[in-house]
Amino acid sequence: MIKALHPRKFPMFAARLIAGINLIEPLMFTILKKTKLFSHRSTTNVFVSTLFSALLSALVNFPTYQNHIIGYDRFNSLDLTLLVATRAIDTVFSSELGKIVPTWLVPYGDVVLFTVSSAFIMYSWFFHVERLPPAYHQWITSAANMDHDIYEVLRLIKSKKLVYGEPGPYSDFLGPYFEKYGKDPKDANTTINLPISCEAVHAFKTKSCELHALWRFYRGFKFAFTVYGPLNLLLLLLPKKKKMSQRLLRALTTSVRSSAFLGAFIGIYWYSVCLARTRLFPLLAPKVPRTRYDDTIAPAMGAIMCGLSSLVETPQRRKELALFVAPRGLGTLVSADATTENLQIESIVFSVCLAILVAYSKSKPSTVRGIFGKGLNLVFNIDYYK
What we know:
It is a single chain. This protein is mainly alpha-helical. The protein is built from 15 helices and no strands. The chain crosses the membrane at residues 12-32, 44-63, 105-126, 220-238, 259-280. InterPro entries: Tmem135. Keywords: Membrane, Transmembrane, Transmembrane helix.
């Protein structure tokens, strides 16, 4: 508690940020109201005054917090900025596009957002480790349950250190991997055996890609249920009006559905990789070099298709999932280097996006979706201007 009161840590940064907004905003609102710049449009006065005050407060306070927190971990500052940026973009798009997009298409927008974000994240997990926080990368590795040797050999293929059909220092890289599973290490040589067999990619569980996908689904389901099951059972302790039997059924249903989502995410990924590298794409495009399937096409195919697993979840959960992964997906496209220029750009992006979020949360609270929107509404819902 004492450390949390440090003047440069997040609690004090949030306090200064909110205090600055609440000091400047009434003054700005009064000026706009008296000058009648936006006559007869009280909502516009609220939006503009809040936007200005939040922007100014953030520009003043964020750099101090940023310079302190990056000393612990660069991603502490960057992740916050990405979170605010993606929520601001989502708020603007959902507010404006909702006027022109048919209602029945709106829920599928979250599926698209989740799919695109997941594609960037999973492709970076394979080939651009530096774009993901170490803990985030480790969590994906645990959930995917991919043998480290297979993971590394695909990275070697991507970096051109290993080329199918050509002898080199890594031609027998998978030899120990084959021996571990009681297989002939000669079959691991990529000079004479190409591409790497699906059975080897399947950790020799089965030659069938379909059975392997089901096995991956089961492993992912089991992994997720150990998290969601106890969590939902713990929530049963909270007092509610519904009967215990109804709450228990709901907890079980929610746990199974969420576990099925993660199982489907992993199973679809693995099966899509197999379709792309051996089962389907080589038949459709036989002239494409086999190396190209393993260093780009197959991982990209899996990264894109696995996002469709979000259809297993309810529309409300799809929204939260999409908004959860979107910041990290956006993070794979920006540099994590803490250069002076990058930090200045980050400070401006954070300030502008936070100003947009706060302005919308005051004037149009329903447009800021999810738990984030509810939190902003609780903090900034002041009715003095009414």
